[in-house]
Structures are given as C-alpha cells and as structure tokens.
C-alpha cells in the first residue's frame, strides 16, 4: 500500500485543493482487463486475474488513499450474455456498482478490441443510467498495441461519439496510471474518507484467500471447469504465535463427477498444483507459513441453487 508522506501534504502547491473521495465503478466486457487495472491502481492484489472471461464474480472494492483524497474502485464482473441464475447475480452486482458510483469507468481492451455488438450492448446499458455523472473510458492493454498501433484504435473509440474522456492505460505494465488518476480525482466529489486509509480492500482475509484459490483454478484449468467451480473456506485457524502456522481447509465445489476427476488430476497432481500455487500467495498475504488443504466435492447445479449461492456469499442473507 502507498504510504502517506507528511511532506507531500500541500507541497505541490495544491494545498488549497479540497480533499476528494468517491466510488468509481470499473465496468466492461469480460476479459477487458478491469481487475488487472484495479490491482495496479491500488498496488495490491485485491481481485483475481485470468485469461478466461468471467473471472470476477463479486463486487470487489480496491481502495487507494493519497494526500489528495481516497478512491474506492469497484471492480465488477464483466457484462456478458446471461444463462444461469449465478450469471444473473453477477450482472446484478455490476449494475449495483454502476448505480451507486460517483464516476463510471468503462474499461475497453485495445487488443483485442470489442465487437460492434458488444459496444452497442455496453452503450445501451451505460448511457441511460449516467444521469449526469462523468463517464471515462480506460482504453487498456496499450502495451500490446505499440505506440503507432494505438492511435487508430483510440480514434475509432472516439468515433463512437460517447460523452467520455478517453485515457489509454496498461494495467499489466502500469502505464499512464498517474494520468488516469489525475482525471478520476478531477471528477470526484469533495468528501471525507469512506474507509480507513490503512485499508486497500474491504474484503476479509478469508475472502482474499478464496479469491486467490479461485484465481489459481482459473489458471490451471481450461474450458468450462473453472466456471463450474467455486471455493469455500471451511476452516481458517490463525497462528498461535508470531511464527505459527495459519491452517486453512477449503472445498472446491464442482457440478459433475467428471469435473471432480479433472480438478483432482491424475494421482492428485492438479489439486496439488492449485493448492501449492495458492499457498505461496496466501503466505505472502498473511506474512507467515500456511498449511492449506483443499478437497473437491460434487454439488450438481450449484449455480442455480440459492442455498449454496448464499453459503458462498454470492447472495446476501
Ligand atoms: N498485455 C496486457 N494484458 C492485460 C492487461 N490487462 C489485462 N490483461 C490480461 O487480460 C486478461 C484478462 O484480465 P482481467 O483483469 O482478469 O480482466 P477482467 O476484465 O477483470 O475480466 P472478468 O473478471 O472476467 O470480467 C488476463 O489474461 C490479463 O493478464 C494489460 O494492460 N496488458
Ligand atoms: Mg475481473
């Protein structure tokens, strides 16, 4: 997390600028690069990233506090076409973020660019609900286009005629983020911190752990298995002393026996790989040794089952 430097306060001649604070919804199509951008802006991994669309499933808040103000970024599930109840929930979460935000950022991938249909769908969703609020376009993945390749793509976005300032950025390579933040701060309302400035997310450690394990599943498996899986933390025991071990027991839920076999892998190879990769990141998160044990369980049609969706925290009590 960025430290607040007392010398910085007012040292840029901007001491008379009011302190700003607000909610900034980051929305867009699946795989656009929203979570990568939020993590880069906040400087910590608050949200899982993967090459598979629909990685983000819940509303995740990434908090950035600077001498000039506090931004609460709302990372949202990508807006996609609907099927399961679970997918409807994901879209609802994006909509909820959109309705409550002070600034709306449409994250658009420069490479690959979205299709015409997808652009029209997003525009139809966003424009009617702006209600006078500022819309920004974060044209991300600029590192993939090369300097010259970027210009025609930015011009194309401009030709869509949206009432939005367009800022090219790269979440993966942390490019142009300062400029992006300047623009966001310009549009934020005055206000006091919404969250403790020490926090970089409002998620609990358990939720961050779940997000990290889910991310490793997305990276280790392809096709439909990751989407049809979910992680539950059944037991989380804090270490006894400063050098103690955090014990975590969790379950990966899948929909069918065949998926369970894939998730476990031959001789347990796959589940070991997922657990090992997750464990290393969780150790970094908690700052100590971790014992992580994951089991795989079949729960047919869990994505349409309100009881399980509630247990997983995807819907409220
Ligand atoms: N080269 C490059 N790749 C990026 C950048 N941002 C994201 N990616 C890649 O794009 C893929 C999707 O990134 P995510 O951040 O998970 O995208 P998302 O919009 O959060 O996706 P959903 O949660 O599924 O809606 C991953 O493979 C990222 O590594 C970028 O700035 N440059
Ligand atoms: Mg995401």
Summary, kept brief:
With 317 residues, the protein is α/β, with parallel strands linked by helices. The chain has helices at residues 34-42, 85-100, 116-126, 146-159, 177-187, 205-220, 257-264, 269-286, 306-311; strands at 20-28, 60-66, 69-75, 103-109, 135-140, 164-168, 230-237, 246-254, 290-298. The chain contains nine helices and nine strands.
Topology (SSEs and partners):
Layout: E1 20-28, H1 34-42, E2 60-66, E3 69-75, H2 85-100, E4 103-109, H3 116-126, E5 135-140, H4 146-159, E6 164-168, H5 177-187, H6 205-220, E7 230-237, E8 246-254, H7 257-264, H8 269-286, E9 290-298, H9 306-311
Parallel strand pairs: 1-3, 1-4, 4-5, 5-6, 8-9
Antiparallel strand pairs: 2-3, 7-8
Helix pairs in contact: 6-8
The structure holds guanosine-5'-triphosphate (GTP) and magnesium ion.
Residues 28, 30-36, 49-51, 53-56, 77-78, 140-141, 143-144, 170-172 line the site of guanosine-5'-triphosphate (GTP).
Task: Please explain how this structure is put together.
- The chain is of the alpha/beta class.
- Helices cover 34% and strands 21% of the residues.
- A 6-stranded mixed beta sheet has the order 2-3-1-4-5-6, with helices on both faces. Strands 7-8-9 form a 3-stranded mixed beta sheet.
- A hairpin with a 2-residue loop joins strand 2 and strand 3.
- Helix 6 runs antiparallel to helix 8.
- The longest helix has 18 residues.
- The N terminus is likely disordered.
CATH fold-level label of the largest domain: Rossmann fold
What is the H/E string?
Answer: EHEEHEHEHEHHEEHHEH
Q: State the total count of DSSP E strands.
A: 9
Major sheet size, sense and barrel closure: 6 strands, mixed
Estimate what percentage of residues fall within beta strands: 15-25%
Mean pLDDT metric:
89
The parts where pLDDT drops under 50 for at least 5 residues are 1-14
CATH superfamily grouping of the largest domain: P-loop containing nucleotide triphosphate hydrolases
Helix/sheet category: alpha/beta
Write down the CATH class of the largest domain: Alpha Beta
Listed once per kind, the bound small molecules are: guanosine-5'-triphosphate, magnesium ion
Shape: globular
Strands of the widest sheet, in order across it, are 2-3-1-4-5-6
**How many distinct folded domains?**
2
CATH architecture annotation name of the largest domain? 3-Layer(aba) Sandwich
Radius of gyration: 20 Å
The percent of residues in helical segments reads: 25-40%
